[in-house]
Design goal:
- The chain is of the alpha/beta class.
- Helix content is about 50%, strand content about 10%.
- It has helices spanning about 5-20, 25-30, 35, 55-65, 70-80, 110-130, 155-165, 180-190, 210-225, 230-235, 245-250, 275-300, 310-325, 340-355, 385-390, 410-430, 435-440, 445-450, 465-490, 500-515, 525-540; strands at about 40, 45, 105, 110, 145-150, 175, 195-200, 235-240, 255-260, 330-335, 370-375, 395-400, 455-460.
- The strands form 3 sheets. It has a 6-stranded mixed beta sheet, with helices on both faces. A 5-stranded parallel beta sheet has the order 6-5-7-8-9, with helices on both faces. It has a two-stranded antiparallel ribbon with strand order 3-4.
- α7 links the parallel β5 and β6 (about 175).
- α12 (about 275-300) packs across α19 (about 465-490).
- The structure holds 6-O-phosphono-beta-D-fructofuranose.
- The site of 6-O-phosphono-beta-D-fructofuranose has 14 residues, from loops.
């Protein structure tokens, strides 16, 4: 096990020598650290100098990466090997952005031609919808696109359409329905005209309860006003790997955009799951985004680890979570358009690395994936930053900012970026008691006004938020997650943990819907909750 290796033990020993060092000392000892601990590649600048690391820490982490076989594991991913071992599949999201003519094989098949066939079909369809050539059943132009999906079939396009709103066709409305709470589909459709609305039912398996329930409700909503089953063909398309399920639902498989079992849902935005995004930003914008992904793919595969952005980021996250005991990691984009980025990362990171058994089926004695959280700056500063500055927990943060604004309005962007820089400075260096006293603060208030500092941040800067940069940022985090999974020797591409809740819910549904009082065989808490729900619902009706 990796935790028994000399490299792991060296990091544990190093952690102990590290405990008393403050970022103030580290910057005093090495005033050039702000430059030397920064790496720029593929349009992203990663400043990791305000982390609780020295050059030695990085060397030890790099040695751990070598020991974990990270190089070989990256090569295995790109070679289409079945690295998703518990499902005996490749994890070939990198093939979704491969250039035409490239060869990436899995199961003896080069998958790149299929990827490009689907991209072409998406581009053709997106072009027709955007131009008004694809119409609704009554001949009206499609003005509203509603993606129905959940998890990886929702969060990616939902986040990206918001992120790239400035690059999108603003004459169209884009909505996303995911929750099985009927309020979701109701809110998404209540003010839409069915004659102008296209639904994209996105589900890799086409068996997901939430998605199929919402899709059926959407179809009823459409037919309640168009009153002709043939209208479904104009107003419903699907993204799936399950052609039979799509046909059974009543969508012509001709109007299905294919995805494959070798792409995990949370890694699928850059394939057909991105159809709503492609309609929003156009095929050219989508291709730009794929270029951004590809740049990072090339980078992670070829850059030496000490200058490899996702590898460094993954090592930093591992350092905090596994060796320094941080339970959570915040990601705070200073961009209104990236308000859903961290929500997207939550699935990418936590569904991938929320594992406690390694690839050999052994229980893991060390900490794996952290709780990932965060919202857009500057809003977070007025909500939870107090805890980051003066709370008792170690919470490393990634701060993401852009040199140029999406909207150059007055001083806004300078104020936004000043906030990012100021937060990273304040978190790192704090304010000492002496500094507080020197400002004339009354003695009883001095402890309250003192900031310990030494709170780590990594700053990621890019020129501007455009499709290419978004692709780079997503791929940065995809490969970061991969780096950590490789070090922990876990399967970052399965998600067995979400199955039990689904199975139990399907057992409870008939108990809630039964006309007669069901015999309940759950634990006493679940039994009582079900009884109260049934009784309360009966009283209401
Ligand atoms: O929550 C489990 C999960 O399988 C995710 O991994 C996936 O993204 C989501 O459900 C949706 O699945 P599907 O695309 O098959 O509907």
């Amino acid at each position: 096990m990796i935790a028994d290796s000399a490299e792991w033990r060296a990091l544990e020993a190093h952690r102990n020598t590290f405990a008393s060092r403050h970022l103030r000392d580290l910057f005093a000892e090495d005033p050039g650290r702000g430059r030397s601990m920064a790496v720029e590649a593929a349009g992203l600048y990663l400043d990791y100098s305000k982390n609780l690391v020295t050059g030695e820490t990085i060397e030890l982490l790099l040695a751990l990466a070598e020991r974990a076989g990270l190089h070989e594991r990256i090569d295995a991913m790109f070679a289409g090997e079945p690295i998703n071992r518990t499902e005996n599949r490749a994890a070939l999201h990198v093939a979704l952005r491969a250039r035409e003519g490239e060869e990436i094989r899995t199961g003896g098949r080069n998958v790149v031609p299929e990827v490009h066939a689907v991209l072409r079909k998406m581009a053709e369809f997106a072009g027709r919808v955007r131009s008004g050539d694809w119409t609704g059943f009554t001949g009206r132009r499609i003005a509203n696109v509603v993606n129905i999906g959940i998890g990886g079939s929702d969060l990616g396009p939902r986040m990206a359409v918001e992120a790239l709103r400035d690059h999108a066709d603003r004459s169209m409305t884009f909505r996303f329905v995911s929750n099985v709470d009927g309020a979701d589909v109701w809110e998404a459709t209540a003010d839409l005209d069915p004659e102008e609305t296209l639904f994209i039912v996105s589900s890799k398996t086409f068996t997901t309860l939430e998605t199929l329930t919402n899709a059926r409700t959407a179809r009823e909503w459409l037919l309640a006003s168009l009153r002709d089953d043939r209208a479904v063909a104009n107003h419903f398309v699907a993204v799936s790997s399950n052609a039979q399920g799509v046909a059974e639902f009543g969508i012509d498989p001709e109007n299905m955009f294919e995805m494959w079992d070798w792409v995990g849902g949370r890694y699928s935005l850059d394939g057909a799951i991105g159809l709503s995004l492609m309609i929003a930003i156009g095929p050219a914008g989508f291709r730009e985004m794929l270029e951004g992904f590809r740049e990072l793919d090339e980078h992670v595969r070829t850059a030496p680890f000490e200058r490899n952005l996702p590898v460094l980021l993954g090592l930093l996250w591992t350092w905090y979570g596994t060796f320094l005991g941080a339970e959570t990691h915040a990601v705070i984009p200073y961009s209104r358009h990236l308000e859903l980025f961290t929500t997207y990362l939550q699935q990418l990171d936590m569904e991938s690395n929320g594992k406690s058994v390694d690839l050999d089926g052994e229980l893991i004695p060390y900490q794996t994936g952290p709780v990932v959280w965060g919202t857009q700056g500057t809003d977070g500063q007025h909500a939870y930053f107090q805890l980051l500055h003066q709370g008792t927990k170690l919470i490393p943060c990634d701060l993401i900012g852009f040199v140029r604004p999406t909207h150059a309005i007055g001083r806004h962007h300078d104020l936004l970026m000043a906030s990012l820089f100021a937060q990273s400075e304040a978190l790192a260096f704090g304010r000492t008691r002496d500094e507080v006293r020197a400002e004339g603060v009354p003695e009883p208030l001095v402890p309250h006004r003192t900031f310990a500092g030494n709170r780590p941040t990594t700053t990621i800067l890019a020129d501007e938020l455009d499709p290419r940069t978004l692709g780079r940022l997503i791929a940065l985090y995809e490969h970061k997650v991969f780096t950590q999974g490789a070090i922990w020797n876990i399967d970052s591409f399965d998600q067995w943990g979400v199955e039990l809740g689904k199975a139990l819910a399907s057992r409870i549904v008939p108990e809630l819907e039964s006309q007669t009082e069901p015999e309940l065989h759950h634990d006493s808490s679940t039994n009582e909750l079900i009884r109260r729900y049934r009784a309360g619902r009966a009283r209401r009706s």
